[in-house]
Amino acid sequence: MGLLRYTTYRFIQAIPVLIGISILTFILANLTPGDPVRLMVQGQEVTPEQIERIEAQYGLDRPLHERYLDYMAGLVQGDMGYSFHRNRSVSELIASRIGPTLLLILSAYVFALITSIPLGILAAKRRNEPFDHVSRIIALIGVSTPSFWIGIMLILIFAVQLGWLPSAGLVYPWWSPEVYGHSGYLEHFYQTIRYLLLPMVALGTLQMATLMRVERTQMIESLQGEYVKLARAYGVPERTILRKHAFQVAQLPIITIVGLNLSTALGGAVLTEFVFNINGLGRLFYEAIIQLDYQLIMGITMVIATMFVIGVIITDIAYAYIDPRVTYGEAE
């Protein structure tokens, strides 16, 4: 099976998964205790007739299955619905908030990859030496500590006590420097990094610790392989063995974990956005749940689910591309 056919096949397989997620989310959102209309008019004097009129206006008085089918029919045509709490379309709200979340997640992944892989290799190379012990302790702390607590500690140390970095908000690199009063793109880039640094480390520490542990284990296994012993017997330099023979094989589990950890990163982004007061998709999702904004909940859930499914498919394709033993869905 070719790459294009395999990719198409995987996307077709993802359709029932997304439909199942949409059904579960729609039922759970609508079964959540509370009345979205009464939450919307909270603090106002409204009559029962006015509440009934609002429910009829947004179709909330119709049977659940009819509302779901209408929502899916609109979704297929690119209409993600309307947020009656914000009087804006769901697609507009998501488009305005998804940028900061993607920036946060991508930067956290970059931080995790550029720190975990070298540290994992060094720990494997210096196995049972002091550097290995220290790296294992750091990895254990990183895996065991919630991202929001790391974020709070980073704010207390680097923003409150030392005053080196800002504690809240982000500078969006896609906005013009004039919006923030910066003198040019160089200062704009510098301020983007300053504001991004703490939330990036808070969200990426868990990924870094997980990847470092796996990288160390895989590198130790690779360095003990028969092909490495044979290369050493032929006098191949240790640096060449490490770079050409052991490294590539050890990266296969890393690719899998990077793809599967996307859901963890999306969940961690919600808490990180709250700690650092970032107006991203996670914060919007929390507000939608609190306000029982059904269509906004559905829209954000479907976007996150689609991102995760695409991430898993890209991981599978990359895995099959790097490892020749893995085929594109062909029978053994």
Radius of gyration: 24 Å
Largest sheet: 2 strands, antiparallel
Helix content: over 70%
Mean pLDDT: 85
**H/E series, N to C?**
HHHHEEHHHHHHHHHHH
How many DSSP E strands?
Answer: 2
Cross-sheet strand order for the largest sheet: 1-2
SS-based class: mainly alpha
Q: Rough shape?
A: globular
Taking the alpha carbons of the first and last residues, their distance comes to 12 Å
The quaternary structure here is single chain
Strand content: under 5%
Count of alpha/pi helices: 15
Quick recap of the structure?
The chain contains 15 helices and two strands.
Task: Name a few traits of the molecule.
332 residues; two-stranded antiparallel sheet; globular
Would you write up a description of this structure?
- This protein has 332 residues and is mainly alpha-helical.
- 75% of the residues lie in helices and 1% in strands.
- The chain contains 15 helices and two strands.
- The protein has helices at 3-31, 36-40, 48-57, 64-76, 90-125, 130-144, 147-161, 177-180, 185-223, 226-233, 238-250, 252-260, 262-275, 281-290, 294-322, and strands spanning 82-83, 88-89.
- It has a two-stranded antiparallel sheet.
- The longest helix is centred in the middle third of the chain and has 39 residues, at 185-223.
